[in-house]
Write a structure and sequence with these properties.
about 325 residues; alpha/beta; Rossmann fold; four-stranded parallel beta sheet; 14 helices; binds phosphoric acid mono(formamide)ester
């Protein structure tokens, strides 16, 4: 793998999942693979799980990690080509990225969407500019439209918990929230479950919350949450803002929050969420603290996803 920004960068998802689970069983088996290598992790936006798990993963491989909170500590970066930089931006990515490319062996970046300009967000302007100018492998720590390390983690978690000899039914359900959130996690989960191809996949959301078909194509989409939940083995809960009339909240019906009453419609489904979660808005306490919740296992698996990806990149550098 030369970069990791999408499921499309992964030639064999099942093999990558197996690799991650092998690291889970033996975290230090490649403890010198990254010796004398350095990863720079750039955060234009906040993070807890992604930052810590990537750092632990790199350390397990013997790599050094340098964290740079660009959003709060660095110069404000400009990403537009031919920009006249008379506003708030101080340094162009075409000047900064090649320097980072000399400091590091791998560059990992977290950028969120603006949720104002759909074309800019969906062109992945920020991460593509880093890829263009850094000259070293780039790993997405969540971008404007996708969160591939989270989605790989989600496939790992489903793979290790589903033991039956049949395809699981996986439901991605929209949930209410107080703020307009990116579509990244939902887009990415859809892209990965479709690319993995080992599940029956249903997406449910209120009208007007349709996601971009480039990610959802292949899934069954319904506005009837109860119908979707029937017989589900996994329920993945996430809020997202509107995609068509970009970045808005339309319906915010609290009845879409998953409760034990709704869970009773499923096949005793395991419940997943990428975190952070707004308790009793997006997901109820009874679900999050109940026996079907996979949230801690899921977040803990972030280390093995990151370790598998860094390992693949180091081997093919
Ligand atoms: N799920 C996730 O990406 O968490 P953080 O935002 O804390 O990294």
């Amino acid at each position: 793998m030369k970069q990791f920004i999408s499921a499309a960068d992964v030639p064999d998802i099942r093999a990558l999942v197996e690799k991650a689970l092998a690291y889970k069983a033996d975290p230090f088996k490649d403890k010198t693979l990254g010796a004398n290598k350095r990863i720079g992790c750039l955060f234009l936006n906040p993070s807890m799980r992604t930052r810590l798990s990537t750092q632990v993963a790199a350390q397990n491989l013997g790599m050094e990690t340098i964290i740079f909170n660009v959003g709060s500590e660095g110069w404000a970066l400009e990403f537009e080509e031919e920009a006249i930089m008379s506003g708030n931006t101080v340094e162009h990515v075409k000047d900064a990225a090649p320097i980072m490319g000399n400091y590091f062996d791998i560059l990992a970046i977290r950028t969120f969407p603006s949720l104002k300009n759909k074309e800019d967000d969906y062109s992945e302007l920020y991460i593509r500019q880093f890829i263009k100018y850094a000259g070293i492998p780039v790993v997405s720590l969540e971008s404007a439209t996708l969160h591939p390390l989270q989605s790989l983690t989600d496939v790992i978690t489903i793979s290790e918990t589903f033991t039956e000899k049949r395809r699981p039914k996986i439901v991605l359900t929209w949930a209410p929230h107080v703020k307009p959130l990116p579509q990244c996690v939902a887009n990415s989960f859809s892209q990965w479950i479709n690319a993995w191809g080992e599940a029956d996949f249903v997406i449910t959301h209120p009208e007007d919350y349709e996601l971009d078909e480039q990610f959802t194509k292949g899934a069954t989409v319904t506005h009837n949450q109860d119908e979707a939940l029937a017989g589900a083995d996994y329920v993945y809960v996430k809020n997202w803002s509107t995609y068509q009339d970009y970045g808005k909240i339309y319906n915010n019906d609290p009845a879409w929050m998953l409760t034990n009453e709704k869970l009773a419609l499923t096949n005793n489904a395991r419940v997943m969420h990428c975190l952070p979660v707004r308790r009793n808005v997006e997901l109820s306490d009874e679900i999050l603290d109940g026996p079907n919740s996979l949230i801690t296992q899921e977040a803990s698996n972030r280390v093995w996803a990151a370790q598998a990806v860094l390992s693949e990149i180091l081997r093919h550098e």
